[in-house]
Design a protein that fits this description.
The protein is α/β, with parallel strands linked by helices. The protein has 2 domains: about 10-110 and about 290-345, 3-Layer(aba) Sandwich (D-Maltodextrin-Binding Protein, domain 2); about 115-285, D-Maltodextrin-Binding Protein, domain 2 (3-Layer(aba) Sandwich), CATH 3.40.190.10. It has 17 helices and 11 strands. The chain has helices spanning about 10-20, 20-25, 40-50, 65-70, 90-100, 130-140, 160-165, 185-195, 200-210, 210-220, 235-245, 255-260, 275-280, 305-310, 315, 320-325, 335-345, and strands spanning about 30-35, 60, 85, 105-120, 140-145, 155, 175, 225-230, 250, 265, 285-295. Strands 1, 2, 3, 4, 7, 8, 9, 10 and 11 form a 9-stranded mixed beta sheet that branches. Strands 5-6 form a two-stranded antiparallel sheet. The radius of gyration is 22 Å and the shape is globular. The two termini are about 35 Å apart.
Length: about 350
């Protein structure tokens, strides 16, 4: 009998020693947390897994990438998640957090690609954006409009899109997006905001001379209403866009793909957010998606190996697989094969 006073790591060790029968008495299904972007993909794999095997359908919760990794790294044992989804790679600080709580072995599964889109209602205005437009609209501070090359910053004065760029419509800047705990937010500021920021040569030069200031300028999002944190639920952003035709939303391509009857995506730097443009890398705001697995739970929580085999099967993540039907951009064949082999061998970071 395992005493409640044991540490999380002790519980895990005891369960491993006791075998899968003891594990089933504690928890008999897989528990997954993490990214709202990866959530639909993990959910459909979980549903297929539950229908096609003797194992229970895994429980999947959408907590955001940062929130999911915090939960994942909180310890080893049945009270902690087995898997976390992430719409960005795990950070070194998160790896250290895991280690400090006894989570020593982590298996990284790169599952595919995604694009971060800016989208609005199909009933809303038609206009496309550059990354420079995006940064100027959403940054907390921007170069002084009267003298943008002076090296001086001012609080963002732009209230309407035409103030950012005269070719854009004279409508209020209102962008609904994820909070700081979201991997989509992390990827957006790195891929879109930072690149747009570099349109100003003096700011780009800071990346070499003062990287801390560079990141503070390029990554800090305004908090005066131009950018509205809409939580981790991307479906909620989709719903809000239908009620506010002038607002834009930020989320993963799959949510645009699944709601193309009511939403339209903005071209960014002249490239439209399509499956093919994300797959070939021409769409500028593209990123990789991941699943992280606690190796200590494999062989303890029933179905872990089998679930990973389902996720990395051609019927799931291949070009004709059911995840592609949901908007996941598949990895190239050689990379899929390499990732699947690493997962099968439970190779760790």
């Amino acid at each position: 009998m395992i005493k409640k006073t044991l540490t999380s790591a002790s519980v895990a060790v005891a369960l491993i020693m006791a075998g899968s029968a003891q594990a089933q008495s504690a928890r008999d299904s897989i528990f997954i947390v993490g990214s709202s972007t990866v959530y639909p993909f993990s959910t459909v794999v979980a549903e297929n897994f539950g229908r096609s095997t003797a194992f229970k359908t895994p429980k999947v919760e959408s907590t955001g990438s940062g929130g999911g990794l915090k939960l994942f790294c909180s310890g080893v044992g049945v009270e902690h998640p087995d898997i976390t989804n992430a719409s960005r790679a795990i950070k070194s600080s998160e790896v250290e957090l895991c280690k400090s709580n006894g989570v020593e072995e982590i298996v990284e599964v790169k599952i595919g690609y995604d694009g971060i889109v800016l989208s609005n209602s199909k009933d809303g205005p038609d206009f496309d954006l550059t990354l420079k437009d995006v940064w100027l609209a959403l940054a907390a501070e921007v170069p002084d409009p009267a003298n943008p090359d002076s090296g001086e910053l001012v609080k963002n004065p732009y209230m309407t899109w035409d103030q950012v760029n005269a070719s854009l419509p004279a409508i209020k800047i209102e962008v609904l997006g994820p909070p700081p705990t979201s991997g989509t937010r992390d990827a957006f500021v790195e891929l879109a905001m930072e690149t747009g920021c570099k349109a100003f040569p003096w700011i780009e030069e800071l990346d070499k001379s003062d990287s801390g200031r560079f990141k503070a300028i390029c990554h800090t999002v305004r908090e005066d209403g131009g950018y509205v944190e809409a939580g981790e639920n991307d479906n909620l952003i989709v719903q809000k866009l239908q009620g506010n035709k002038n607002a834009l939303g930020i989320f993963g391509f799959s949510f645009l793909d699944q709601n193309s009857d009511v939403l339209k995506g903005k071209a960014v730097d002249g490239v439209r957010p399509t499956f093919d443009n994300i797959a070939d890398g021409s769409y500028p705001v593209s990123r990789s998606l991941y699943v992280y697995v606690k190796k200590a739970h494999v062989g303890v929580i029933p179905g872990m190996r089998e679930f990973l085999a389902e996720f990395t099967s051609e019927k799931a993540w291949g070009p004709e697989g059911y995840l592609a039907d949901r908007g996941l951009i598949p990895l190239p064949q050689a990379e899929r094969k390499a990732v699947a082999e690493r997962v099968q061998n439970l190779e760790t970071l």
